[in-house]
Write a structure and sequence with these properties.
Elements (H helix, E strand, L loop, with lengths): L5 E7 L2 E7 L4 H21 L5 H42 L3
Antiparallel strand pairs: 1-2
Helix pairs in contact: 1-2
Length: 96
């Protein structure tokens, strides 16, 4: 297992948190925490403070939904590319 030999400080809802990570993952972790913070703040502003736990859960569900939507779209693109590759290979293999 890789060693967690770096750390970043992120700000979530006005509170700073130090999070261990692998070297090279700092920028993505900071970007991810900013995105999470934006999503939580957006939900808070729309829902008149439901409670931090519920807002956090809603943000996590929304982000998970976004991820799975993108993964499904990626799968469809990969399938289309594989089909095109088969067609192209067949077309190139046909005698003139």
């Amino acid at each position: 297992m890789d060693q967690l030999d770096s750390e970043v400080t992120v700000n979530l809802l006005g509170t700073q948190h130090r999070i261990a990570c692998r070297v090279g993952e700092e920028e993505l972790l900071e970007k991810s925490s900013r995105y999470l913070n934006e999503q939580v703040e957006k939900l808070q502003s729309k829902n008149n403070v439901i409670g931090l736990e519920r807002i956090s859960l809603m943000a996590a569900m929304n982000i998970s939904y976004e991820l799975h939507t993108l993964l499904a779209e990626r799968g469809q693109v990969e399938t289309s590319l594989a089909e095109l590759e088969i067609k192209l290979t067949k077309a190139l293999d046909e005698p003139d």
